[in-house]
Amino acid sequence: MTETPSTCPYCGVGCGVLIEHDGQRITGVRGDPDHPANVGRLCTKGATLHLTAADSVQRQTRLLAPMHRTRRGATPHTVDWDSALDTAAERLAAIHQQHGADAIGVYVSGQLLTEDYYVFNKLVKGLLGTNHIDTNSRLCMSSAVAGYKATLGADAPPCSYEDFAHADTVFITGSNLAWAHPILMRRLEDTRRARPQQKWIVADPRRTETAALADLHLALKPGSDVALYHGLLHLLLAQGLTDAAYIAAHTTGFEALAERVRAFPPAETARLTGLAEDDLRTAARWFGESPATLSLYCQGLNQSASGTDKNAALINLHLATGQIGRPGAGPFSLTGQPNAMGGREVGGLANLLSAHRDLANPAHRAEVARLWGVPSVPATPGRTAMEMFQAAADGAVKALWIVCTNPAQSLPDQAMVRRALERAEFVIVQEAFATPATCAYADLLLPATTWGEKDGTVTNSERRISRVRPALPPAGQARHDWAIATDLARRLAARIAPERIALFPYDTPESIWNEHRETTRGRDLDITGLSYALLEEKGPQQWPCPEGASEGRSRLYGDGVFPTADGRARFADVALRPLAEVPDAEHPFSLLTGRLRDQWHGMSRTGLLGRLYGHEGLPAIDLAPADLARLGLQDGDLVRVASRRSAIVLPARASEGLVAGQAFLPMHWGQEVLSGQDAQGQALTGVNALTTSAFCPTSKQPELKHAAVAIEKVDLPWRLSAMAWLPAEQALAVREQLRPLLAAFAWASLLPFGREPDAQGRVGLVLRGAAASPVDEARLAPARALLGLDGPALLRYQDAAARQDRALRVQRDADGRAQLQAFWLAGDTGGEAWLRQLLEADTPLPGPAHLLLAPSELARALVGEAAAPASPQVCTCFNVREDAIRQTLAGCAGTPQERLAALTATLRCGSHCGSCIPALRGLVRSVAAVPQGPGIAPPHRLGQVADRFQTEATGQTGLP
Amino acid sequence: MDKLKLVMIGNGMAGVRTLEELLRIAPDLYDITVFGAEPHPNYNRILLSPVLAGEQTLDEIVLNPLAWYARHGITLHLGQAVTKIDRIRRTVTAADGRTAAYDRLLIATGSQPFVPPVPGADLDGVLSYRDIADTQAMIEAARTHRHAVVIGGGLLGLEAANGLALRGMAVTVVHLGEWLLNRQLDPTAGALLEASLRQRGLDFALGAQTAALQGDARGRVHAVRLQDGRELPADLVVMAAGIVPHTSLAEQAGLLCQRGIVVNDTLQTVTDPRIYAVGECAAHRGVAYGLVAPLFEQARVCATHLAQFGIGRYRGSQTHTQLKVTGIRLFSAGDFMGGEDTEAILLSDPAAGLYKKLVLQGDRLVGVCLYGDTADGPWYFELLREGRALGPLRDRLMFGERACQGATPAQAPAWREAA
Questions:
Q1: How far apart are CA B278 and CA A48, in angstroms?
Q2: Does A800 lie at the interface with B, CB-CB under 8 angstroms?
Q3: Strands B170-174 and B203-205, how do they pair?
Q4: Rounded-to-integer distance, Cα A871 and Cα A874, Å
Q5: In the beta sheet, which residues pair with residue A654?
Q6: What are the phi and psi torsion angles at A365 (to 5°)?
Q7: Which of A377-391, A441-455, A901-915 has the lowest mean pLDDT?
Q8: To pair with A460 at 20 to 30 A between CA atoms, which of A266, A687, B55, B110?
Q9: Interval A780-806: pLDDT, tens
């Protein structure tokens, strides 16, 4: 066994990982104790990376050879690399000749490595001669980019993670840090332990786990961020908390802004934001009076039709108070993807050029042309993500080359996106996995390497460049993204511009990176002082690190000099603009989207593990309890959620974290897990069927965070609920085979469950569906067969006339003890919850197996099972559920810290990745100790035996 | 004054039960005389199978010892088949010539095995299965012979086959039907039964008709030939192809017989009001019952009329089936096959040898077929007989009486916990 240091492929924290492997197989992963981003820690997602790389998982889900579709909808057939790349080059060249370069759009990803990104950017701008390359970072960071550039002059987060420890006030706005960036939350918790006086302000419409931990939660109205920041500035001015000297010395444009914010007195701000004036005053005081104020922000600001303004208005506060360029102070944009930063560095967007150069700037264009050795690079901005797909939908873009991203899940207004994918004449999908929804639209599928195989560099939120190293050779015929791009670029050049073949001489990632490094010379992100060798030797480094510098800069603008023409930062005098979709009588609800703790983005990777659905295993829409009641809904009733574009069907659920008028949907639930078919026979395409493509005029980032929707109860009386343990070697393949069958239902969801690695080598699948009338047997039989719920050995209850069909698969041991392996409930699905308990608990059935076929509650009574519903899972690492935690807490007294420590010592929850610690703190607060209580409860850990963390706990813990 | 004279022909379960009921309600009304063809006091014919299986002894199955007859002053003639009824003189005459006069006559001659008219049916080693003599003969044969063939896969035949197998014989059951107990089970249950009997070492020829019984030189059977040409070795053949009411005496006495001695709802023969008939020999509303429960119901009604109370009507019985083979539980009643206008509810756990089928017509239970777990049989039987409306019980019916007590609890939203 060896350990290869690399990075986590998920969020932008950029944690270092040590990949344990034997060169053939990845056997484990742990946080890299030497990586400054995470000092050994990993969250639930990072800590299970090795499980997503398991042979069985990869075999069933990876794209392992180039594949070609002769016609849409047909099953693709394998082709060799040469013919695949020649086909691609032919088609692209043909379209290039026939329709011009504007007819080709390349849509890449913030998950690509910097080297991959560089080649794609050069391919489009240097070879095709257009700027029609954009990236899913457009959905993620472009407002942050525009916000920084509008105020500070460059796309450079001025802070470092180490600032967390120095801040006196932390202003978390538009970020659910506890779930989206758990490792950063661990850092904040550390600080709070060391310096309890550190104040946390959280601005978020929802009471998230992050908000619940705040000293002050500002539950502002969706979209009222600019009003909040202007209102705070108004108070800062009124209370004399601004830094006149700093403003005078290092900024311009304050007068206009000061004039504007006069219109935001506390009363007016309170009206606009729905916040209490006292809370606004407290926030302003904490922000302005604290020696060091650090703002942490993310998609809540970025994914907005006024995203740039929100970013800029927040940065205004830091400039006005001089809260920047000092330890613990500054506006710190947190990145959503592992290498959105790297992509921006190489200029891999439609409106950027290499090394933070500007498209609009002739001098910048000339520099790039010179560096590349081409006469010129195009001046016209290319189509950004939404513009590119809209153009394809309108027929202007004929070819789409989609790389390492899943637009059929992640882009808003899926109806338009699907039209684009269908209408485009030639769609290349370059992907590591065969499972994303977008693959279904590909004419050509190019297999790419992924985590554990890739080789290059990434840059995280704090401008830190880390080496990404391969532990394994590429799976199957997969190739590195940069290599595919280079190869295809040469073949394309040979056809459209032979003289430019020489632009792509690359044979290693390092050769690409060195070229990129040269483009940064003299720029704000100058890394000419770095090299692969130095990264090897000294580990991850922050930019800038110009030639001669001993190490990277951890903090920017300490000297108050900004990368603008006059060296001064600019205040952004931005107006308050309304939401893209203001709720109205037809669409009265504000739909908010956000992340789940244990899933990441479109779930192409996290979605492969049953255990990562333990924390949230049902795609449902959250509503305020009052709204649920007003709509006459019970928890779990199916609702139709309709925006102005499209509709989906899913269960509704009460959430205390929401105020009336708001609804919440995780951004993860795409068609892969949540589907069904509407009355017109159209497939339901998940959360982004609802979201709007309206985008920020400056950053072009769509308002994914908010849409106006109508919610109504749907009557789909016929229900199906099925769960099955399957061999790990088959489960995920079966899932793919089941997907087409979801069209039989008006609502359907299909997810894995389980506790990989499972001692019995199992992975579970759970299939739920509903329809207005019973789905006929002919359409159900294949699904039952796939779930191993057919054949003579089944237990079965059938009342055809009453539309009841229930089946069980049980395994009986020598002593006749039976264990539930699978169940199928069609008609009355009331028994699902506790049958699931029996299925997941590795214990013999409590009574005669056939009694489980009785109607739900009755069955429980007959079998004599205590009717305790499954308690929600809190700790994913050790599968600890809420009931056990409450029981234990009741038995331990002391300070919150002591009780949390006792809890962790007893049940081990929170002792591995720590992602559940915010939830644990919440429980510590809410559960009082019972003085003469029952004592410490026995640990409640189903499936513990199968838990490798038990044997391999790394000692890295969220607690001291 | 002189008591009335009651004569009973036949000394079996139905008749003697009638006497018991009568003696309970009118102990002193009659001088009672009983003629029994068998040399035994009344015994429990149903328990011959356990006796054959070696699970009980003959003494254990005697219901009314001789002392009982004595105690009640009953004149008992054992081993005396009655040969003649003189309805004019109101006397009966037995094989040995002795006669007895009656004021009331109760015919309870039961039934006799149906012996299919196949060549060789008269060979040695060919038995039917009806009484203690047959049972003893089978036990004896099992001691001295190896191969047995039972003709008829009905209740009696399977019990005989099981008993012989337990006594060490290699037994093959030849059955005309496509599945065992085809009058009592549906094909699925029949198949489960066949499987578990095969596990016990029994062999079966289903859908098979006997062509002939072949004998050896000494006139003993040694093989059974089937219509399809197969030959089964057999040095014992048990005929269990069904029973026919024993009515020859009644017919000879001029009593109307149609598939049994025709009686009315008071169990009086329609021909002669002084003469009653109960049990397997009696045909009530066209039905001659072969199971014990209806016969006891007849006995109770008949007794009230013999007692001159003139109350009680017998209106026929719903019957249900049980097989007395240890370890095999099956139960069926009513229209368990179902048809056009019926709905079936099914439950099965093949690995556990469990199968249940409930047949509903509209809102009522009209048929039940249980295999493997018959605990709720009587309860279903009651529902079926009473024709009670099921209403909300339908969903829980399959899970038995216990499941149907109390109202349905409200169901918790299932999916929530699953989240």
A1: 80
A2: yes
A3: parallel
A4: 9
A5: A623
A6: -65, -40
A7: A901-915
A8: A687
A9: 999 999 999 998 889 999 999 989 999
How far is the C-alpha of B130 from the C-alpha of B12, rounded, in Å? 12
Contact A799 B395 (CB under 8 A): yes
3-class DSSP assignment, residue A433 = strand
Using a CB–CB cutoff of 8 Å, tell me whether A505 touches chain B.
Answer: no
Residue type, A587: H
- Contact between residue A880 and residue A874 where contact means Cβ atoms under 8 Å apart: yes
Q: Which two tokens stand for residue A660?
A: 């009336």
Q: Of A117, A111, A511, which is closest to residue A352 (Cα–Cα)?
A: A117
Q: In degrees rounded to 5, what are phi and psi of residue A710? A: -105, 145
Structural contact between residues B179 and B158, judged by C-beta atoms closer than 8 angstroms: no
Pairing of strands A426-431, A444-447: parallel
Instruction: Tell how many helices (H) and how many strands (E) occur in chain A.
Output: 33, 37
| Cα A631 from Cα A650, distance rounded (Å) | 15
DSSP assignment letter at B370: E
Length of chain A, in residues = 960
Q: How far is CA B288 from CA A172, B14, B115, B318, in A?
A: 90, 13, 18, 12
> Could you tell me the pTM of the whole model?
0.87
ipTM: 0.82
Cβ B91 vs Cβ B99: under 8 Å: yes
Stretch (H or E) spanning B386 = helix B377-386
Tokens matching residue B355: 């199968």
Sign of torsion, CA A85 A86 A91 A95? positive
Pick the residue from chain B with its C-alpha nearest to A883.
B417
Is A873:A838 a contact under the CB 8 Å cutoff? no
The amino acid occupying position A68 is: H
The residue in chain B having the minimum alpha-carbon distance to the alpha carbon of residue A874 is: B419
Q: Does A868 touch chain B (CB under 8 A)?
A: no
Task: Tell me the CA distances in angstroms from B47 to A849, B130, B142, one per residue in order.
Answer: 34, 11, 19
- pLDDT, tens digit (0-9, with 9 covering 90-100), for A334-354: 999 999 999 999 999 999 999
Q: Do A830 and B415 touch (CB under 8 A)?
A: no
The answer to whether A171 and A218 are in contact (CB under 8 A) is no
| C-beta atoms surrounding A867 within 10 Å | 11
Give A155-172 pLDDT, tens digit per residue: 999 999 999 999 999 999
B→A contacts (Cβ < 8 Å), by residue, are 343-352, 354, 360, 394-396, 398-399, 402-403, 408-419
3-state secondary structure of B48: helix
User: Based on C-alpha coordinates, what's the Rg of chain A?
Assistant: 27
Complete edge-to-edge strand list for the sheet that includes strand B126-128: B126-128, B236-239, B147-151, B170-174, B203-205
Q: Which residues share a beta bridge with B207? A: none
Test B399 with A854 for CB contact under 8 angstroms: yes
B343/A799 CB distance under 8 A: yes
Q: Which of residues 638-667 of A touch B (CB under 8 A)?
A: 651, 653
Chain B residues within 8 A of A798 when measuring between CB atoms: 345-347
